[in-house]
């Protein structure tokens, strides 16, 4: 059982060989929350923040949210609770560069209240690239909270903001995802975590 006392149990160390770097790689994967196979997805037995496998249900896939430079971003913050365990609000921001009918349909559909898990690859990857990937919204999902278009601003793009719903925040910070090693995790990410239908 995890220690729920709130006590610090390890040093917070500075690694001079892995100093902080901001930003994400250009592409992100968005997954419908109910497409996650929660019995097959696993976390490390000694560190509940380290996810060792993110698996979807048979026949399900994630979807690529393609960006440019630093158009996509992620964030999380503590949400203090008075008489309950504190929670964490997860967030993702992105830009839809082409306001095509197909892209606008996806934005319109997401506004209907769907919940999503977002997987990002950070530019800061840690030692051995073990800390490259983060999973946001794994437990309660992120919702599309803002969608903004103005033909006179930002070159007519559509700005999106996803975040945890108020009162339904996550129990912890985003998971770090490492399935064996960086190469294996990267391959799953690039393949949108697609899970084929079994025989």
Q: Whole-Å distance between the termini?
A: 37 Å
Q: Got a strand count?
A: 11
CA gyration radius, whole angstroms: 17 Å
> What is the chain-wise order of helices and strands?
EEEEEEHEEEEEH
Largest sheet: 7 strands, mixed
Largest sheet, spatial ordering of strands:
2-3-11-8-7-1-4
What is the topological layout?
Blueprint: E1 27-32, E2 42-43, E3 50-53, E4 63-66, E5 73-79, E6 87-96, H1 101-110, E7 116-121, E8 133-136, E9 143-149, E10 158-163, E11 175-177, H2 182-190
Parallel strand pairs: 3-11
Antiparallel strand pairs: 1-4, 1-7, 2-3, 5-6, 6-10, 7-8, 8-11, 9-10
Description:
The chain has one domain (27-190). It is built from 2 helices and 11 strands; from the N terminus they run E-E-E-E-E-E-H-E-E-E-E-E-H. It has helices at 101-110, 182-190, and strands at 27-32, 42-43, 50-53, 63-66, 73-79, 87-96, 116-121, 133-136, 143-149, 158-163, 175-177. The strands form 2 sheets. The protein has a 7-stranded mixed β-sheet, with helices on one face. Strands 5-6-10-9 form a 4-stranded antiparallel β-sheet. The longest helix has 10 residues, at 101-110. The radius of gyration is 17 Å and the shape is globular. It starts with 26 loop residues before the first strand and ends in a 9-residue tail after the last helix.
